[in-house]
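Tutorial, part two.
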Amino acid sequence: MSRRGFALLAVLWVLTALGVLAGSALLTAREGQLASRNRLVLARAEWASEACIEITMGKYAADSAFRAIDTTALGRGTWCTARLVDPSSLLNLNLADSSALRTVLGSDSLVDALMDWRDADAVSRPYGAEADWYRAFRRVPPRNGTFRSIREVQLVRGFEAIPVARLEALFTTDGPGRIGLNVAAPEVLATVPGMGAEAIAVLLVRRSRGERFNSADELLGRLSPPGRKLLTDRFQEFLSQAAFSSARYILVADGGVRGYPLRASARLEVAPAGRRLAVITREVQ
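Running the prediction step on this input gives:
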């Protein structure tokens, strides 16, 4: 009987081992299928983002005022979106000084927190926050360097509740930091030295007519004596920070397949070349 019991126990162990091996094989096969499917979905998403890049290039060639493609169905469940952003229409978070940031944000607390995140030291500003504060609240500590993206701003104390879309409407991490007078929002225009309320109003009226200013002299000629004096008093600073034309754009395209969370993103730095856009750099995520 003991031999029978031992044999039965051995058989059961063998069956159990075979069951485990079969389960592992099925799990491995399933993981392989999922990996293959994800690779296929990602390849289709990359194709979709490339499609939106080409569509954007074509639409810009037909109309240089073109700026965005809403979510577009490309067939078989694929979709893409694209936007052409002019960095000069926004305030560069990595280059703007505290005065410019305060003009847009209107808060010493937010400005000091931004500056503390960006600067290299560990000394907190009067209304700011350095690594000790972030560690105390179990949050990611400051980079002590430049922002890599606008989304990173939400890690800064006080910005966690501000929607990314709102931040992207005002700030950028791209470009040389010059403000495009013909494209920037009023809040951003106000950061340019010498730009008073009258100059901003004149710019906005000209824009509403579909027209633009091409030089500082042209703008000065439309201002009253007080408005002109305000601008000329800081004229050299104005010239160093203002731009009348766009030298670079950032083209961001996303693609995906409906029903799957995977998406592919491409980010291109492009420059106007006649009626077309020339690609300078390309990043794929």
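The chain is about 45% helix and 20% strand. In part three we will examine how such features are distributed along the chain.
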